Amino acid sequence: MDKILLVCSSDKGTKVYTENLKSMGYVHIDTEGNSGSARRRLIHENYSIIIVDTPLKDEFGSDFAIKLSRSGSSGVILVVKSENADLVSAKVEEYGIFVIPKPFTKSIFHQGVKFVFTSLRRFSALKNEKNKLMQQVEDIKKIDRAKCLLIQYNNMTEEEAHKYLEKQAMDARLTRREVADKIINYLGV
C-alpha cells in the first residue's frame, strides 16, 4: 500500500494534486499545509512518497525536502516554479530529490510520480540484496572462525573441520551458521 504525503500551502493546489494522484490510482493521500505540521505527522506515519509544493507558508521547502531525504526512505518530489527549477534542482539532486517544474502538465506529473515510485522499488530491491549479501559475509566469517577453533582445539584439518560443521548442521537440522555459533560459544571464544 503506497501512502503519499502532500505538503502544499494552497487549497487549490492541494485539490489539483489530490485529483491527479487519485486519477493514478493512489488513494492513501494525506495533506499538510506547511512543513511544521508535516514534520509532526512524520513522527507517527511513514510514506512512500512525500510531495512538497513550494513555497510553503513557513519556509521555501527545499531545506525541508533535503531533511526528509536524509532522514527516511521516502521518495521526495519537490515542485517549484519553472524559473527556479534548475537552481533548486542543482541544490537538491545530490540528495535524490526529484524536481518537477510548475506549471506542469498532467502527464509530466504522472511520469514524475511513476519515476520516483520505480526508483524507490529498485532502491529497495538493491537494499534487500545488499542486506542478504552482508548476512552471507557475516555467516562466512562465523563459519570460518568456528573452523579455525576446531583446527586449533581439536587438531582437525580444514577439510575435517568443514565436514564436521556440515555433518553437525545436517544431523541437528540447523544452519552451518547456527552450528558455528554453538561451537564458538562452547569453546568460550
Describe this structure in words.
The chain is of the alpha/beta class and 189 residues long. It has 2 domains: 3-104, 3-Layer(aba) Sandwich (Rossmann fold), CATH 3.40.50.2300; 130-186, Winged helix-like DNA-binding domain superfamily/Winged helix DNA-binding domain (Arc Repressor Mutant, subunit A, Orthogonal Bundle). The chain has helices at residues 11-23, 35-44, 62-71, 82-92, 106-154, 158-172, 176-186; strands at 3-7, 28-32, 49-53, 75-81, 98-102. A 5-stranded parallel beta sheet has the order 2-1-3-4-5, with helices on both faces. α5 (106-154) crosses α6 (158-172), α5 packs across α7 (176-186) and α6 (158-172) packs across α7 (176-186). The radius of gyration is 26 Å and the shape is elongated.
What is this structure's SSE topology?
Elements: E1 3-7, H1 11-23, E2 28-32, H2 35-44, E3 49-53, H3 62-71, E4 75-81, H4 82-92, E5 98-102, H5 106-154, H6 158-172, H7 176-186
Parallel strand pairs: 1-2, 1-3, 3-4, 4-5
Helix pairs in contact: 5-6, 5-7, 6-7
